[in-house]
Amino acid sequence: MNTCSTRRRMILTAGAAAVAAAMLASCSGSGASKTGGGDSGGTFVFGSSRLPTVLDGAYVYDNESQRVIYQMFDRLVNVKPGTTELTGELATSWEVSPTGLDYTFHLRDGVKFHDGTSLDAEAVCYNFDRLYNLKGPAQDLAEYWRISFRGFAGDKDSRYKSCEVKDPATPVLHLKERYTPLLASLASIGFGIASPTALKKYGYQVELSGDSMKFVGTFGTEHPVGSGPFQFKSWDPGKKITLERFDGYWGDKAKINTLIYVPIADGQARRQALERGEIDGYDNVAPQDVAALKGAGYEVEERPPSNVGYLAMNQSFEPLGDLRVRQAIAHAVDLDALLKANFLAGAVKPKSFLPPTFMGFNPDVITYDYDPAKAKELLAGVSNKKLDIWFATEVSRPYMPDPKSIAETFKSYLEKVGFDVTLTGRPWSPDFLAGIRNGKAPMYIVGLLPDMADPANFFTLFDNQPKRWGPLPKGLLTHIKQAEEAPEDKREALYKSLNQELMEDLPGIPYVHAPTHLAFKKGVTGFVPSPLFAESMATVSLGG
């Protein structure tokens, strides 16, 4: 990497874009594109909205962490690039018992972790057992585990029974209860296989610090060790994360030598950094920038609209416990106008929380058309009309490219029918996320980027963090469990029924399934967009 590249410093706040430009001015004319070309290696600099929270897949709950972790850790199974079709990764094949309780995996020969230790059945079982035995606040962060196995050691409702080392190349997972989407779940980054040697040496402990979590073990912050095509080099807090090609990788080697992630919170600042040659690519291109970047010759890749953005309503807070109020909120908002103002033409107005591309989508659920008169009618006799909508700062997501603008749009519609609306902006991490998780946010704008090819992914919103919603319909969690455990041929009907049940209770208002875009400098090739955000940078080549 050239000396100019080593001096790059991206600023975390949008207001500091000018300062960032000044700090990068000395690199003008010799930006990222000068660090390598074609398949000859080089350095690729990616502009993220923020840096990861942690690099331990056990604790991932944000897309920026997932993006980096995906490059370093392999899973037993994965999805084929650009699809939702399952394929082997560390496992070349597998069998599922007729009961659905036993999963036998056959591992690839000769795989090594970045620290040189062997990735065998014993290492695989160590990973599953360490997740099962997490304690205290670590359990609150281990969302992927809770989604798939529901509980931890000592929990009566845990699905996990054990992991058996049948022989060095054959781990067997044993469940207490059927979980039909398990393979799809194991393809997610939460089940990346980590080096037991590194986990034991550096620790992965988590402590509670106020309302936030503190990582006291250094595996996920200083020493993440997997078996993927890139290995960890350094993390300069607030400035950049650097990965290097792992030449001992079992599969096709990465085409670039060095991969750097830098945080640029503001979308326009990311575009400007690309145009100045300071970065080679970035995600979450603002809708209004897509056509201009294409016209200027940049490489623009699109993901399909497989996500969902929604305005959540926590029924623990008044007046949101009143169904009439939630219905009035839904009727007060012109979603067609909201989408037109904030998203590209390819954005889809939702019928429910589940996108139409997933099995179990129900086109016939109850809907709440834009009808201000109906909203006012529903509010007749309601004395408390005060609402507090939280939105995230210092972040952008496909479903909320400008969270404040979307919050202001909701506010304007709701005030027209008589609500008194306060907007509360909080930093994405830890304040916004912790507030949602702990049930302190009355209403909030957020969404879900899917990472497993199954409708169960979207219903984890409701059975995984109940505090974020307040009281949910009686029987809902039971129905979710039934859909997860049912034989494959029964599940579609169950999910269609669940969609109807949710939209009748209306715990939130889904407002968009948004297409998402990434932009790269001219000549960059090999990036394959994924509907599940399962995207490897190992196939990417820099242009000449």
β-sheet strand percentage: 15-25%
Helical segment count: 18
Distance between the termini: 16 Å
The overall pLDDT, averaged over residues, is: 89
Name the helicity range: 25-40%
Biggest beta-sheet profile: 7 strands, mixed
Shape: globular
Oligomer: single chain
What structural class is derived from the secondary structure elements?
A: alpha+beta
Radius of gyration: 23 Å
| Low-pLDDT residue intervals, each spanning 5 or more residues | 1-38
Spatial order of the strands forming the largest sheet: 10-11-12-1-13-20-14
- Count of β-strands: 20
Keywords, please?
18 helices, alpha+beta, 544 residues, disordered N terminus, seven-stranded mixed β-sheet
Give an overview in words.
This protein has helices at 3-6, 17-24, 63-72, 121-132, 137-141, 143-149, 182-186, 196-202, 267-275, 290-295, 323-332, 335-342, 372-379, 403-416, 428-437, 456-463, 476-485, 488-505; strands at residues 43-48, 77-79, 86-88, 91-96, 102-107, 160-167, 170-175, 206-209, 212-215, 230-236, 240-245, 258-263, 281-282, 299-303, 308-313, 386-393, 420-427, 443-448, 508-512, 516-520. The chain starts with a helix and ends in a 24-residue tail after the last strand. The strands form five sheets. A seven-stranded mixed beta sheet has the order 10-11-12-1-13-20-14, sandwiched between helices. The chain is α+β, with helices and mostly antiparallel strands and 544 residues long. The model is unreliable at 1-38 (pLDDT under 50). It is globular, with a radius of gyration of 23 Å. The protein has 18 helices and 20 strands.
